[in-house]
Specification:
- The complex is a heterodimer of chains A (271) and B (294).
- Chain A is an alpha/beta fold.
- Chain A has ten helices and eleven strands.
- In chain A, strand 6, helix 6 and strand 7 form a beta-alpha-beta unit.
- In chain A, helix 3 packs parallel to helix 4 and helix 9 packs across helix 10.
- The termini of chain A are far apart.
- Chain B has 294 residues and is an all-alpha fold.
- Helices cover 77% and strands 1% of the residues of chain B.
- Chain B has a two-stranded antiparallel sheet with strand order 1-2.
- Classes of the chains: A alpha/beta (271), B mainly alpha (294).
- At the A-B interface, helix 6, strand 7 and helix 7 of A face strand 1, helix 5 and helix 10 of B.
């Protein structure tokens, strides 16, 4: 019996020693926007392959991420919008100083069937189409054909950006067809002559036609430069100017390799 | 270990496994109601069930699911209009007219239809039936309630054919013989004796077919179009309840009103399909009482 106890004690000590070593490993926590999540996640995976650190990445939304930064429970907050004044005030009152880092651009192309003669639209026209005020392409100088409005499911990040910038937060017509992915939108537009839809830039190919919006054609460079209107920057916020592991991770995301990950995940790299 | 204890152990192991499916059912029901019930208090049962606007992510949000319920009912009824005549004629044909040797070959093939994954039905509807209907009716899009109805009808066929064929075959042979002996023709025997006797068994098969159509998710997500407006006709895109849950659940924040509303839809769906199953069960019991003559 005594012998067993001794063995048990030794095992416990060895284990605690071991976890002590693991505990000494550097930790980094990232929390926030589900739009930035794929970038943060993939970058963390690649970074952890090359460095002996532990990075945990969580979604939950931009607001939750920034709230965690204000409370000091996360090192980096992902956000698909800029920080609000109220949040800055709260953070400063708590002794934290959020610093924004732009890590990628998110751009959304408006697409129609390749046979549709319409090749440019204004934001106003897009809004009128999506709110159901324009129902026929002839109203825009096109062929006499009913507009088939195609939208994404309302919980998707793509919908959120499009609805905010192009539809200005108004309600999309209930007659709009819902598709659950960028790929499904592309497929439906490619098979429907009267269709209009929107997809991330990574999904453009010859089966659908991207229109100019306010005279600007969507490309990586027009999105990165901010000329193309349906685009937004994606941020990572740090508490104070980053140092050590946080700085190294942010630098990795901004490096050529990190920006390649950005592009692979369907977003627009900064350079 | 003697054989008696061995038997006992085996008995209890089997009991645990047998109980597990009941435990799963109870677990699912508990989770469903725990997550979904709060929305009924927040929105109000009437506003939730009969509201005509589904804008769950806007501010202020609208959580009216009448368009979604109507869409589910519409495509299910459409599917039955399509599947019941075909299913019934098929089952009468294979149980009475077809030689037994061919029947034993045909019935398993029909039942094979049930084994095709629903995503394949969806692909077929999206790529072949949808464009076909679009050309025939000159529609702006082929993804409509009609497309979904036809696909769901095809998917419900094996259930309807197989069960109503069983019902027709289990009508006692003496009923048929008596009718023929009284000078009834074959058609009179089928339409006035066999079908009325088998009617409750046929109703069972239709109810189960409806349950299948109502609960089907992948196919309607792919072919029904997904417009959340109140359905205005069979040739318009609609969005059934199942498609809404499947499309929106992925990115909905856990515990939000939208999340609870999706569980609320699941409760409504659960109650509807459960009542179909209960009706099917009751009519099945009535049927066996009738044919056994007790």
């Amino acid at each position: 019996m005594k012998k067993n106890l001794l063995i048990l004690l030794t095992v416990v000590m060895v284990i605690s020693l071991f976890t002590g070593v693991v505990g000494a490993q550097e930790n980094l926590t990232i929390q926030g926007s589900s739009t930035v999540l794929p970038i943060a996640q993939k970058a963390a995976e690649v970074y952890m392959e090359n460095n002996d650190v532990s990075i945990s990445v969580r979604g939950g939304g931009s607001g939750n991420g920034i709230a965690a930064l204000i409370d000091g429970t996360t090192d980096i907050a992902d956000a698909s919008r800029f920080i609000k004044q109220e949040e800055v005030d709260n953070a400063v009152a708590n002794g934290h100083f959020p610093v924004p880092h732009r890590v990628a651009m998110d751009g959304i192309a408006v697409v129609v069937h390749p046979d549709n003669p319409i090749d440019k639209l204004t934001l106003m026209e897009i809004k009128q189409i999506y709110t159901g005020q324009i129902e026929n392409w002839s109203e825009l100088g096109g062929t006499n054909q009913e507009v088939v409005v195609i939208s994404r499911d309302s919980s998707s990040g793509t919908f959120e950006v499009f609805n905010e910038i192009a539809v200005e937060g108004e309600r999309v017509t209930p007659g709009a067809l819902l598709q659950a992915s960028n790929g499904a939108v592309k497929d439906t537009v490619a098979n429907t002559e009267g269709a209009i839809g929107y997809v991330g830039l990574g999904y453009l190919d010859e089966s659908i036609k991207a229109t100019k919006v306010n005279g600007v054609y969507p490309t990586n460079s027009t999105v990165a430069s901010g000329k193309f209107p349906i685009a937004r920057p994606l941020f990572m916020f740090t508490d104070g100017w980053p140092e050590g592991l946080v700085a190294d991770y942010i630098n990795f995301v901004l490096s050529a390799e990190g920006q390649k990950i950005v592009e692979e995940q369907g977003y627009v790299p900064l350079h | 270990m003697d054989w008696k204890t061995k038997e006992k152990i085996i008995k209890y192991i089997l009991l645990i496994f047998a109980m597990s499916s009941i435990m799963f059912l109870i677990g699912i029901v508990i989770v469903l109601f725990r997550e979904g019930l709060p929305i009924f208090y927040k929105i109000g049962i009437i506003d939730f069930l009969f509201g005509q606007e589904w804008y769950p992510t806007y501010d202020p949000a609208s959580f009216g699911i009448l368009p979604l319920i109507s869409a589910s009912v519409l495509v299910t009824l459409g599917a039955m209009i399509f599947a019941v005549p075909i299913g019934l004629s098929t089952s009468v044909f294979i149980s009475y007219i077809m030689p037994k040797s061919i029947k034993n070959f045909i019935k398993p093939i029909i039942e094979l239809l049930a084994g095709i994954p629903s995503v394949i039905y969806g692909l077929f509807g999206m790529k072949i039936l949808g464009p076909f209907l679009k050309d025939i009716f000159g529609l702006p899009t082929g993804l409509t309630a009609l497309t979904a109805s036809i696909m769901l009808g095809i998917m419900a066929l094996p259930t309807i054919i197989s069960l109503s064929e069983d019902a027709i075959t289990s009508v006692p042979k003496k009923f048929r013989d008596a009718s023929l002996a009284l000078g009834g023709t074959r058609w009179e025997t089928i339409s006035k004796v066999i079908l009325p006797t088998a009617s409750s068994g046929i109703v069972t098969s239709i109810m189960l077919g409806m349950g299948r159509a109502m609960g089907e998710t992948m196919t309607v997500l792919m072919v029904a179009g997904g417009a959340s407006a109140m359905p205005e006709g069979i040739l318009k895109p609609v969005r059934p309840m199942t498609a809404t849950i499947a499309a929106e659940m992925g990115e909905t924040p856990v515990g939000s009103n939208h999340y609870q509303a999706l569980f609320g839809i699941a409760i409504v769906l659960f109650i509807i399909t459960l009542s179909f199953n209960i009706i099917a069960d009751l009519t099945r019991k009535r049927f066996y009482k009738k044919v056994s003559g007790k």
